[in-house]
User: Which sequence fits this backbone?
């Protein structure tokens, strides 16, 4: 069994351990030498170039992704060559284009924030007037980790983006907290659902994840995840980012069709991690048990990483202080705000688990 | 941080996942192309050749092992080159030579079976006469998985071995069961001790491991493990194979100074696996928590593997029947009796965990 992964970031990297354990061969098409997933890189090249991708994928059983940026024409070329692509091109489109995503979710009857497209400042003005004078603007494509997202209060706040094309406008949802529902689906239709988690973002970047989300049961999140996975024919892991509004409704914010930061806790906190599950799902193998192994898991991202040091440089102090914490280093060069690793703590007392994960992560502050 | 591992078997392979997670670079000197740990192989060559090993080890921070077969002269050459070797040559000698091992354990006051060396059939006859007419004979070096071990009832039963040198004779211990105590020790002296386990051997090969060993607390096993690790100055993981006699005494049967089959359950069943712990220990990093994550873990070896098929070929059926079982494939060609993978089940009911692990392993019967 050979899985080809396009993209050599930390998501591809974290597929390596379960691939090794399961005896699945992983081949990665990396952007450059020395990528995070470099150990499994069998090719280095541009994922936007069909010839490069076809050559890479010639002998794999299935192609999947570290990111959602592979163009539709490249996906079409893979399909034309008879190479299974999971998730498929049509499903991926809803993760690549936020306007398509909003349209399809509405079609499925999934609750989303009030939204509209805008092609000029007049349209922005109209949306602002209808939504209390403020809105979220998003570029339909290419945004991630807070990039391509802007709060808008003036009709001309996104003139720069409008010069390049249509902008997505959404109501500024007065949310109580953010949640994420991770599910996996295999081509045969089987779906596995992890416990819904609470996520905390800072500057648009995921900072902390608590699994499960504290508070009453959120069966609605599970149902939304299942409906989207089946309705969009997603194969592999699907992450559904959700707003929980002040009045308790759940609205879908974003989708990702790959392992997702909100699921990193599953490596140490779930019977089957999102990375193993993604491999199983894209190979159409039976899905593993997604149950939590302990009452609480907390994951804290390491952003930027220690100044002038690597993450392992800080292990002597961090490991001595936190023998039960799980440490993860993505082998990436440090840049301010860049996700370079994470830590996970698990246990039965939420306050203690939160405190331990946060304390362990602080050893890696820049 | 770069760890060089001599030997490309499944023990080196199972160090890859924690190395990836921790951001530790692993370099493997493999016996041949396509080894079990081939993904991390940076060199292929003979571990008995000092020049080969020195070239491999030139840029690593520490050298450690997949097996104990690196000759003392090669270890001396590494030391002379200033390359840290863990465990060190002197400690390793006690794992390489069973006579040295017996001598040193006796010197430490560790209980062992009654033993003697024999250089001729007369000496064998004398030992047999003194021990009820039967004994275990072992070649001092090179044995593993039941090889180099023989039950002796006649003075001439090991004439072939005596032609090659001294033979170790031991009483045939009337044991109730076999146990294994796994510990890890770092150069600074810190020791971590996993729960003692019960092992079941078939034809001299480990078949099944239950963690912890059922029954009353076995603090004596823990104490023996700690005393041997400190007394022999072991760094890295040490496995102590023990007989529990009918009258409840513990006698040391064998030592291994590397991750060991009796500790494979720790990948899925302990907070810190033996493979991660070995990396931490040889790098002199603080040791991780060795606690069990669940009340019971059972590991069952896959021996030989499915006829005409690979282990992943059986995943569709095995995974569908056992969604919570953890599957491990060593990527090795199948031969009768060869260890090619294992499965682990964990849970709170021992009978259920045992039954599930055994049932899952049966999917891979040859």
Assistant:
């Amino acid at each position: 069994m050979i899985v080809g992964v396009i993209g050599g970031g930390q998501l591809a990297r974290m597929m390596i351990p379960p691939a090794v354990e399961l005896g699945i061969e992983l081949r990665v098409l990396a952007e450059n030498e020395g990528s995070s997933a470099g150990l499994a890189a069998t090719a280095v090249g541009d994922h936007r170039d069909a010839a490069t991708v076809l050559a890479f994928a010639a002998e794999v059983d299935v192609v999947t992704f570290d990111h959602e940026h592979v163009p539709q024409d490249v996906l079409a070329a893979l399909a034309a060559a008879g190479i299974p692509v999971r998730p498929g091109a049509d499903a991926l489109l809803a993760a690549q284009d936020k306007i398509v995503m909003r349209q399809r979710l509405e079609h499925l009857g999934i609750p989303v924030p009030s939204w509209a497209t805008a092609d000029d400042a007049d349209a922005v003005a109209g949306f602002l007037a209808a939504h209390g004078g403020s809105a979220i603007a998003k570029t339909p494509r290419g945004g991630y980790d807070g990039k391509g997202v802007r709060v808008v209060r003036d009709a001309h706040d996104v003139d720069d983006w409008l010069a390049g094309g249509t902008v997505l406008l959404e109501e500024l949802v007065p949310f109580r907290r953010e949640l994420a529902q991770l599910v996996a689906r295999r081509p045969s239709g089987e779906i596995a659902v992890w416990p819904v988690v609470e996520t905390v973002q800072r500057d648009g970047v995921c900072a902390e994840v608590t699994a499960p989300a504290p508070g009453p049961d959120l069966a609605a999140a599970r149902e939304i995840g299942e409906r989207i996975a089946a309705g969009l024919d997603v194969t592999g892991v699907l992450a559904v980012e959700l707003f929980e509004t002040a009045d308790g409704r759940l609205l879908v914010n974003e989708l990702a069709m790959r392992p997702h930061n909100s699921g990193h806790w599953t490596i140490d906190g779930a019977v089957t991690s999102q990375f193993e599950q993604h491999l199983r799902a894209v190979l159409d193998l039976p899905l593993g048990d997604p149950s939590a192994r302990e009452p609480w898991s907390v994951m804290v991202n390491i952003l930027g990483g220690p100044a002038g040091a690597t993450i392992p440089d800080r292990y002597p102090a961090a490991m001595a202080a936190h023998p039960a914490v799980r440490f993860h280093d993505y082998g990436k060069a440090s840049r301010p705000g860049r996700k370079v690793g994470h830590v996970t703590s698990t246990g039965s007392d939420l306050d203690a688990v939160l405190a331990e994960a946060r304390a362990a992560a602080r050893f890696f502050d820049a």
Observations:
- The interface with chain A takes residues 1, 13-14, 16-18, 20-24, 39-40, 267, 271-272, 280, 285-289, 291, 293-294, 310-312, 315-316, 319-320, 323-324, 326-331, 341 of chain B (CB under 8 Å).
- Residues 175-362 of chain B form a domain with the D-amino Acid Aminotransferase; Chain A, domain 1 fold (CATH 3.30.470.20).
- Chain B is about 30% helix and 25% strand.
